Structure formats: structure tokens, C-alpha cells
Amino acid sequence: MEKKFDLIVVGGGILGTFHAYHALTRGLSVLLLEKDNFPVGATVRNFGQVIPSGMTGEWFTYGLKGLEVYAAIQRQFDISVRNNGSIYIASDSDEQLLLHELHAHFQQVGYPSQLLSKATVLERYPAVRPSYVREALFFPKEVSVEPHLMIHRLHQYLQQRFDKFQLIPNAPVVDCFDTSAGVKIQVSGMGSVVGDKVIICNGNEFKLLFPELLAKSGQVISKLQMIQTQPFPEAVLPGNILTGLTIRRYESFAEYCPSFSTISTPSHYQELQEWGIHILFKQAADGSLIIGDSHEYADATKFDELGYTLKEHINNLMLTEAERIVNLDLRKLATVWAGYYPQHPKKHIVELDPSPNIHIRTCIGGKGMTAGIGYAEHSMNRLFNC
Q1: Which pLDDT score is estimated for 386?
Q2: pTM confidence score
Q3: Cα distance between residue 243 and residue 1, in whole Å
Q4: What's the DSSP call for residue 43?
Q5: Which of 122, 127, 256, 354 falls between 20 and 30 A from 325, CA-CA?
Q6: Contact of 149 with 142, CB cutoff 8 Å
């Protein structure tokens, strides 16, 4: 712990790990500190969908970089990346119109997409109900990962490839301050370590180090309920499955589709939207389906008010809508859980700099799995002037 590092990263989730990755590719020495035995936050409590098609502006560009890096690492080391694409399925004429408008936008920018007829969708995804689908938009370059596996394998990959990388789990950071020798990090039960720079990527938990900054940051915590069924080995639902409520929610449709603000909300969607529900599916490697999700919000300083229990009513709403989409017995559940994501109502990410060498990068919301890689590269370029 007395060794000095070029960079210390606090937080072993996707955002912190890819800050470490981009530093390592530049030849820097990196120490990655994870407070738990392994990451247990938003990085592992998500679908594992990598979908730049849902993003806009620089975040779309960051997502493209993510696809590139995932593919490059997967060629060297299995981190669970699967290239089965993403499909948005329209269930009515309004959603169908938005698909055509988004397809036209991506044709202009050169990002591959394909409009699929109802017959083609039912052929490729036979578990989808004919009564639901009108048409679909497919993005062949997009991928999925297994979030409960990916971050562990990514850490293994970094440890095997880079001599200048050190990962220490069970290392909660309790203090962080500038000294004449560099930034000193105090780790509970382990003493201190010094780095030229420190990047803090530990979600909302930076309140333990900088509570006054958290209180002023404006970030909120989003609680998402998710469901996983028992395996359906006979079902064929490859890739990332996004449906009508997602078409009506994602920022790419809102920004790039001229008709987005003019479409009406069907009555059967209204209660779902009140709980922030939009239905996504991803079939895991064992054949089970991950279904979700919902959104409830609380101020980051009061996020415990969201509670740790799951609302059965929300799960029933999600399952009922999911049963309208696929012809499977989704009530055969394996597990249910909640994810807690810090995000900001007006910013894509929160960037705070308590000192010239201490940097907080957090609150990336649900974009981390897709855009965290590209954003981390951009962040490193700025911090190290390269």
C-alpha cells in the first residue's frame, strides 16, 4: 500500500474499471479499489444491453466506442459479449411511424439498421405474439453481456494483460485529500496509498467522502424493479428485445423522430408510464428471460426512502404487459430484484473536481453498460491532456 500510482480509481464497477482500462492502455500504473468483495451496484443489476441506438449526441458516439472495445476485448478474453443485435418492436401505427423516422436518421449518419416486416419478426423471434407486432427496427451491430459475469471477467482480463494494474477488493475508502507528495487515499483497515490523480466512480456513495458535494449535486436515485424467469430452452429471443413503451421513452426517438411529440398515449399504457415502466427482454445464456423495468425516484440524500422491498403491483404490471408481447409462461419466476442507479434530471453525468487531482465521475444512470467505455476514454483524455 505504500507504492505510489499514476492513477487510483475508487469504485470497481463499469465506469471505474474502464477509467482504469484507458489509463492502462496509455502505460500508466493503476490501482483499482473496490469497497466490496466484488461490485454489487448498478453494474451487475441491469440487463446487460449495449444499445447505442437508444442514445443521442456524444453519448451515441461513446456507445459506438463501447461496441469497438467490447469486441476487441472479447477477441482476446471471454467477457460474455454476444453479438445478436437489438430489435425495437412496434405494436401500433404510432410506434411504427417512429421506427421509420429513426431508421431514416440512422441511414443518414451511416449506422446500420434494418426495418423488419411482421412476418420476418415472427420467423426470427417465434416467441413474440402475432397480435402484438406490426413491424420492427433491427440494429445488427449491437451486443449484450451477462452483467453478473462481465465485470468479474473484465477484472481478470486486466490483471492478466497489464503488469501495472492492481485490484484490491474489500477496500472501502474513508478519506481522500491532497498532500505535497500527491493525493493520499486512506483505506479502512489497510493504511494509505498515494496517487498522482484519483478518480472516484463509486456511484452515490461518494457521500462518504464528500457529503457536501453530494448535497449540492442535484442527483437522484432511480429504483428499478427487474424480473428473471426460469429457463425456457425452447424459446428463441436472441439479443436485446425492446418494445413499444421503450420506443415511447428512449431519447433517440424523442430527439430524432419529428412525430414523437405528436403521438398520443393509449389508455392501456397510462398506468405503466406512471411507474416508469418500459418493457425490455433479454434471454440469458441459460434460456431464462430478464424482464423489466420500472422507475421510482428519490433525492440522493434521501434515497433510503425508496426502500429495499419490491412492489408486487409493479411486478404484476410488468408481467401482464410482457405476456401481451410474448407467448411464454412468464409467471415461472426464478428471482426478482431492484437496481439503484444514481442519475441527474438535467445532466447525462455528474463531474465534480474537489481539487486539481481529485475527480468525481458518477451518476451515469442507465447508460453505463453502453456508453461508459467511450465516456471513460473521453474523461481520461481530458484529465491527462492526451
Answers
A1: 65
A2: 0.95
A3: 49
A4: T
A5: 256
A6: no
